[in-house]
User: Which sequence fits this backbone?
């Protein structure tokens, strides 16, 4: 097939497809939060048991991030992302077959392990297909899909569960995921040079403007010692823990907490809890635009640091405001600020991992996401246990605020010019970064 002109550039079509996957990912994840009450009644579970079920997903998701990223680097995102999308869809469906506490923990752990490959594979595809000057907004768009998916899931899952039941709802989600996996394998190519549908002009533009890979660097597997010794990897791991600690509350305990706190019906709670997630999507877009704008102005380092620092300050203030709110609208207002801020940190974080990881972008981003999702794991169990031990939700939010403020200082150590081997990379902006 000859290369020709297209109305929609291929790299933009790629972003549309990965955005849709991001939406589906978080519909699958958030559905269990909306289904909490019927699941607890059906399987006779306590809140503490439900906390472990929610955290089992986060643990599986965290532990398999680095292996999934390594597979993306070795085999390419076409094969790996197709396989993991099919895998997590199967375990989404098997959630419907759970007969008790232990079986639900097991299934949700494997569901998390399957989903672990999604974003590291997207990062690897971004390295090959996206120019550096567009990297921030592409990351922002992809992660905004996750927030839109979670926002849509809260009210829609509540309606679907009421209409057909919680078990049947997970079967519907399984079918959607399997369809996406098949489409991806047929449609995507790991490198734009291998895609006959791309125009010659776009191919040339991508090859000239994407991040250059040093041909002298070894193509073998990255050594564990090099990964652990990298200051950039350690910095990203620490700060991402705080981001996920804040976000995962919205995905797990916000729905039941708001419902019990203000005695609201499920669909109304779903609409309320969708608002912070939509604000998170806006935070992703805003941050992505800021990342690219600062980068194009000639400051590579500031393009990563500035939006992340602003985001963590907003996140800390928002979670503290949530404690003092006395109405559903006030609570949602403050949590919306928190999630807008927390999600401002995503585009710079993932862009940074691609910056320093290059051909190891899948493994580096997977390592960061592994550490971050240990924060998700901590959130799912910390909220019910701190409430039980102290009789108040305030300690949980004080802890979240402290983590966010700590991440501000951690980001001041982040330098995307430093490769994994700690040598300073040439600045493609052409000037010394701030």
Assistant:
């Amino acid at each position: 097939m000859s290369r020709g002109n297209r109305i929609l550039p291929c790299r933009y079509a790629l972003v549309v497809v990965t955005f849709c996957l991001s939406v589906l990912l978080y519909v699958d994840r958030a559905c269990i939060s909306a289904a909490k009450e019927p699941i607890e009644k059906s399987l006779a579970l306590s809140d503490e048991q439900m906390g472990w079920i929610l955290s089992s997903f986060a643990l599986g998701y965290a532990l398999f991030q680095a292996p999934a990223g390594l597979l993306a680097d070795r085999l390419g995102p076409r094969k790996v992302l197709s396989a993991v999308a099919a895998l997590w869809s199967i375990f989404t469906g098997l959630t419907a077959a759970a007969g008790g506490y232990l079986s639900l923990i097991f299934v949700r752990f494997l569901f998390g392990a399957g989903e672990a490959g999604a974003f590291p594979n997207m990062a690897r595809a971004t390295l090959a297909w996206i120019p550096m000057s567009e990297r921030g907004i592409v990351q922002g768009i992809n992660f905004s899909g996750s927030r839109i998916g979670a926002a849509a899931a809260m009210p829609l899952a509540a309606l679907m569960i009421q209409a057909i039941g919680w078990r049947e709802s997970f079967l519907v989600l399984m079918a959607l995921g399997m369809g996406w996996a098949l489409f991806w394998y047929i449609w995507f190519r790991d490198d734009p040079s291998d895609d006959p549908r791309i125009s010659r002009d776009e191919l040339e533009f991508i090859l000239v403007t994407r991040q250059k890979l040093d041909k002298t660097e070894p193509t073998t597997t990255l050594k564990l010692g090099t990964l652990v010794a990298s200051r950039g990897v350690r910095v990203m791991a620490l700060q991402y823990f705080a981001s996920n600690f804040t976000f995962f509350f919205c995905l797990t305990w916000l729905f039941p907490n708001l419902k019990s706190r203000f005695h609201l019906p499920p669909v109304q709670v779903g609409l309320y809890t969708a608002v912070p997630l939509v604000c998170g999507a806006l935070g992703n877009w805003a941050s992505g635009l800021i990342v690219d704008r600062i980068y194009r102005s000639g400051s590579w380092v500031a393009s990563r640091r500035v939006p992340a620092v602003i985001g963590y300050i907003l996140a800390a203030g928002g979670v503290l405001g949530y404690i003092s709110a006395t109405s559903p609208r006030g609570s949602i207002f403050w949590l919306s600020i928190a999630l807008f801020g927390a999600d401002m940190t995503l585009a710079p974080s993932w862009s940074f991992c691609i910056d320093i990881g290059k051909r190891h972008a899948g493994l580096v981003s997977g390592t960061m996401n592994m550490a971050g999702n240990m924060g998700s794991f901590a959130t799912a169990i910390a909220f019910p246990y701190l409430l039980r031990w102290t009789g108040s939700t305030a300690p949980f939010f004080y802890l979240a605020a402290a983590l966010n403020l700590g991440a501000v200082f951690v980001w001041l150590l982040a330098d995307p010019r430093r490769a994994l081997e700690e040598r300073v990379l040439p600045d493609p902006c052409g000037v010394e970064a701030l």
